[in-house]
Write a structure and sequence with these properties.
With 274 residues, this protein is an alpha/beta fold. 28% of the residues lie in helices and 18% in strands. The chain has a single domain, classed as 3-Layer(aba) Sandwich (Rossmann fold), CATH 3.40.50.720. The protein contains seven helices and nine strands; from the N terminus they run βαββαβαββαβααββα. The protein has a seven-stranded parallel sheet, sandwiched between helices. It has a two-stranded parallel ribbon with strand order 6-9. The longest helix has 21 residues. The protein binds D-galactaro-1,5-lactone (15L).
């Protein structure tokens, strides 16, 4: 059997949020892993190519989500609201929608979920601290709170039903770091793909929480609790060091965005002014 005729490891993988920044990048990169890649988003996305299925789906629509999961081996869940917002849209997609997803995962017999959580579940730790996956949650906004819900819901589905989930507490996954903070939180696209590959292919993951960063010089997150995934980043924000030189200009002591790991997210939440 040559490479062209060899079967791919999965029959059908589902990628939600396929129209988002990361979803669009992943669409091409994860194709070698599945005979069929099912792509979903609430928005219209480019039509299905060879080996693809496209399903427009609102996570808040319970019946649509049940149908979306039919025939799926594993899910990469990148759908939902991905930044701070008002509670209503966060609730619909990240809370109600996530419950629909796990209910459908259970009913359709899906084995594993790779859940795009976020470092914003712990954004209220200080930039002078190093934490690991056992540290109590300290979300930095309603978006972070919704990701805490996802980590708890997936924990429950593992303990109660044995459905495995790897929660990826993604730092900042962009083509390159955009701010000085992202020199710490940067996760190169290649490294995100490798982290997902490790989470999907590791023989036994139970319920695992892992922080997603590249091999950056400064670290806030200790990933030893997820060593069994075997993730080894190949990139580093050091590749961009000249863009964000240390200037000696210290932020004001009251600057919360420099004091806490969540950066700008810590002041992006509701102010209750209206
Ligand atoms: C996130 O959770 C967001 O989804 C992403 O857009 C980035 O803003 C990232 O956090 C970050 O902290 O940089």
């Amino acid at each position: 059997m040559n490479d062209a005729t060899a079967r791919k490891p999965f029959q059908r993988l589902l990628l939600t949020g396929a129209g988002g920044g990361l979803g669009t990048m992943l669409r091409e990169r994860i194709k070698p892993w599945a005979e069929v890649l099912r792509l979903s988003d609430v928005r219209a996305i480019p039509a299905a190519g060879p080996g693809e299925e496209v399903v427009q789906c609102d996570l808040a629509d319970r019946d649509a989500v049940l149908a979306l999961l039919e025939g799926v081996d594993a899910v990469l869940h990148f759908g939902g609201v991905s930044v701070e917002d008002k509670f209503e849209p966060i609730m619909q997609a990240n809370i109600l929608g996530l419950h629909h997803l796990y209910e459908a995962v259970y009913k359709q017999g899906v084995k594993r979920v790779i859940y795009a959580s976020s470092s914003h579940v712990v954004g209220y730790y200080r930039t002078t601290e190093v934490i690991d996956a056992r540290a109590p949650l300290r979300p930095d906004g309603l978006y972070g709170v919704s990701k805490c819900f996802g980590e708890a819901l997936s924990r429950y589905y593992y303990d109660r039903f044995g459905i495995e989930t790897v929660c990826l507490r993604i730092g900042s996954s962009f083509a390159e770091p955009r701010t000085a903070r992202m020199m710490v939180t940067y996760l190169a696209y290649d490294d995100l793909v490798e982290l997902i590959r490790c989470a999907l292919f590791a023989p036994r993951v139970g319920h695992t929480i892992t922080f997603g960063t590249s091999d950056n010089a400064v670290r806030w997150w200790d990933n030893r609790e997820a060593a069994h995934l075997g993730y080894v980043p190949k990139h580093s924000s050091r590749e961009f060091a000249e863009r964000f030189p240390q200037t000696g200009a210290w932020p004001a002591p009251e600057d919360a965005t420099a004091t806490f790991q969540g950066g700008p997210f810590v002041t992006a939440g509701p102010m209750y002014e209206d």
